[in-house]
Amino acid sequence: LARNGPVELAGELRFAFGRLLGRDELAHEVHLGTLAPGMWVDKTVEGRVLSRDGFATYGLRVLLPPHTELVGLSFGEIVSASEVELDGVTVARFGKLATNADEAVLLHHPFLLEHVVHDDAFDLIVRVSNYDHDYPGFTALRIGRAQDLHRTRDLALMLAMVAVGGMMLFSAANDFLTMF
Questions:
Q1: Per-residue pLDDT for 70 more than 80?
Q2: b/e string for 7-19 if b means 16 or more Cβ within 10 A?
Q3: Looking at residue 118, what DSSP letter applies?
């Protein structure tokens, strides 16, 4: 992780559409599909084309280099109500996770967390419910040293601020020139 920097976890995760499962339930479930991290809309799992509305569980066992003590996980942007669980402990909640539209509350934003690792592996579970957004799930899943992920996020924020500042300056200059 230190040598190569953050990497995208782009392989297939265990995926259970229409079920909100915990680590133990997911480990014993035999009828699961697989899905790459990201949005589930219009994907086919177990012969079924998924719609935007519904709820699901993503699961992954992450294997790490020996003696890794702290990792960062970046979800890009979580665009649905969700819960993130690491090694059986819920570490984050966004909005209100629910199995129906009346109870679900949408909340989305970029998300980065740090996780202290006790073994050379950990279990990641992401439960998601969506009844509002056109593209449910999360936009990316990256793992790396926490400081590298923070640096990447901070750089992206700085570039966005420079772009917005440039547009504001251009707009002000344009307004000034049109006054004469």
A1: no
A2: eebeeebbbbbeb
A3: S
pLDDT exceeds 70 at position 153: no
Report how far residue 88's alpha carbon sits from residue 44's, in angstroms, rounded to the nearest whole number. Answer: 28
Query: Is the pLDDT assigned to residue 150 strictly greater than 70?
Result: no
Residue 83's Cβ-count burial label (10 Å; 0-12, 13-18, 19+) is buried
36: number of CA atoms within 13 Å, CB side? 9
Q: How many CA atoms lie within 13 Å of 104's alpha carbon, on the beta-carbon side?
A: 24
Q: In what order do the strands lie in the sheet with 89-94?
A: 33-35, 13-17, 54-63, 121-130, 81-86, 89-94
Greater model confidence, 75 or 97: 97
Pair of tokens at residue 74: 């970046």
Q: How far is CA 70 from the centre of its chain?
A: 18
Yes or no: say if 84 and 60 are a contact pair by the CB < 8 Å rule. Answer: no
CA distance 55 to 130: 6
Residue 117: pLDDT band with limits 50, 70, 90: confident
